Amino acid sequence: MLVLTGCVPEPEPTAAPTTTDSPSASAAPTATSEPTTPSSPSASASPSPSPSDDGELRALADTIGVTDFELRGPAEYVVQWGIGSLDGSEVRIYEFASEEDFNTYLDSVVAFGITREDFVREEPYAVAPTDRSQLERIRAALS
């Protein structure tokens, strides 16, 4: 995403949330079972639909060139998400149930300088590299 480090909240999971002191700089759910709470209220989140086949997220990761992709599951506003590496930088791929959920997620991270421009959107997916210089490469791979 941005060059900022340790300043982006992790969306809360569909399970009971807790907080941590060091959120990720890539505006994504944590890899632990205890993600942090977003700054926006959870009451506005849409009910989580069943995730699509996780093979779709893996296929998207392969198309982009993301290696070591690991599916991490659902989180608040996010149907499912996964994380991998692109040329040594972290890339997260999210599946959203709707554009409204994506916008609500963006609202929860905007205070940390994360904007729509930090994602490559290929509905229902959003791809978020920690290295913003990879955005164009990701867009090209998906077009």
Q: Would you mind describing this structure in some detail?
A:
The chain is of the alpha+beta class. The chain is 21% helix and 23% strand. The chain contains three helices and five strands. The protein has helices at residues 54-64, 99-109, 135-142, and strands spanning 67-75, 78-86, 89-95, 120-122, 125-129. A five-stranded antiparallel beta sheet has the order 1-2-3-5-4. The longest helix is centred in the middle third of the chain and has 11 residues, at 54-64. It starts with 53 loop residues before the first helix and ends with a helix.
Architecture blueprint of SSEs:
Blueprint: H1 54-64, E1 67-75, E2 78-86, E3 89-95, H2 99-109, E4 120-122, E5 125-129, H3 135-142
Antiparallel strand pairs: 1-2, 2-3, 3-5, 4-5
Q: What's the rounded overall pLDDT mean?
A: 74
Share of residues in helices: 10-25%
Strand order, sheet with most strands: 1-2-3-5-4
Care to count the β-strands?
A: 5
Helix and strand composition category: alpha+beta
> How many alpha or pi helices?
3
